[in-house]
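#onboarding

Welcome to the new folks! Below is a worked example of what a typical request in this channel looks like: someone posts a single protein sequence, and someone else replies with the predicted structure as tokens. Don't worry about understanding the tokens yet, we'll cover that in week two.

Example request:
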Amino acid sequence: MREYSVPVLVDVPLSDNCADIVFERGEQEPGTVVINRKSGESWTPVTAAELRDQVAGVARGLIDAGVEPGDRVALMSRTRYEWTVVDYAIWAAGGVSVPIYETSSPEQVRWILTDSGAKAVIVESEAHERTVREALSGIAGEPSVWCLDNGALAELTAGGADVSEETLKERRLARGGLDLATLIYTSGTTGQPKGCRLTHDNLLFTARNVARGPLEALFELDGRAALLFLPLAHSLARIIEIVLIETATVLAHTPNMKNVAPDLQEFKPTFLLGVPRVFEKVYNAAEQKASSSGALTGKIFHRAVQVAVAWSRAESAGGAGAGLRLQRAVFDRLVYAKLRAATGGRLSAAVCGGSALGERLSHFFRGAGIEIFEGYGLTETSAPSAVNIPGANKIGTVGKPFPGVTIAVADDGEVLVKGRHVFDGYWNNPEATAEAIDEDGWFHTGDVGSLDADGYLRITGRKKEIIVTAGGKNVAPAPMEDRIRAHPLVSQAMVIGDDRPFVAALVTLDPEALGPWKQANGKAGVSDAELCADPDVLAAVQKAVDEANILVSKPEQVKKFAILPTDLTEESGHLTPSLKVKRNVVARDFAKDIEAIYG
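Example response:
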């Protein structure tokens, strides 16, 4: 078994808890701006003292409402300012935060609330409240419910006016590193979600060692600021929230993904967190805009992409030559500067997780002046376990373990993890815990990967998703799916072939890309459904498949594909909230399409 460790950088005292920093900074640096809150069309700065006071007010309200130390409080909302206030208020009151994706169905909400035993629920909207009420119908001991859109923060603050400062302080200081901080339910592709027990130490150890270690350069910049738009119910966005609060990086929230572009230009972040699909869409939108502006503009853009990728690859190999540097400088004025301006003009770095971004896009963004650092982890590991770092970004990998983490690759290729960031088990599920953490303390991730001589980790797929063809060939679908999905017209791709004579793929088209593509290709009158069989679309998807096939041997290559008539989305039930494909559900719902491929 090959393993690689990085020494602990920050030894977090077990007396610390997640809420401490809000109160300490509010006392020591009261005037420091820690959040920019969007109100209408303007941004309002929130100081450390103001954040502390709002967190304290809501925490007193929760105490007054009967929340006791260790009680679970659920939070169902989009990513917005109030989420952060409530999250820290729950901790300050001694409670345990239980995030719920705002897109969750009544059945999913019912499971999480009943399994966690939540004593209270805070929702964003009246629609969410109706979902919760429906989910709790017929259940005894219904928890209290507050609605943010109906003044929940003011109501809680008013209700807790008689709770003393001493009581609040006692509650907050009574919780330490070994106490449970949050239950995050994994959005599994099969079965009921499992509640991951994450302690205050899990979260603080992770946040402080990441912020003072691999990503320190990003959180020491003057005027540093970050825009969060991923769901805070997701463990990756959640740990970044904690990192931003711990480092006094100015934080802003975008609840609606459609507002990301204008919010980037207005807020002007220096740091961004995203999943691969976000960066793929940024690239695809830029390419479509250039192509629709005329043949010359399209040619300039594609040459700029080639130069950016070539420059970045040369940098990885020791440095670009004078000619390539000159070309990059020219295209920086023509193309790259405009791309950076669309993000506010100050963005130079981003962290990407959730799945693989793809080397070509990573090289392009670095060449264009926005370096993306890919990382790796799971909810069970407080989100990250490894991440690339400024000055040592090995594109194509997910980086080295962050300080205090050991990563190993077992003989069968499974990635194993140890460290203080690893959860202490699944809520109410000792059997699943025993399966996940072995007798030697290794957490079994279920992912397959490799470690190189320098300690950089590559992820090649999920152990349970390895396809074995009828000919006995083992195929890892993830790398090919990532490459196919990178095509501007493609939304989702799922490689199939288990017990089949050859490997194939199911592909869906991106609805947002189809409109501009039809205009540019003289097919404005063609319906989206008709495009599934359009020769030009088929040729474009075939090109994406051909590029993916370069990655693998001939027996592993995709021989046929089918374009599905509808996209795979969370709403359709085919994606998890973290945008992972539910392979078994897709295989069931599109069984006829699969049989047609092999028929």
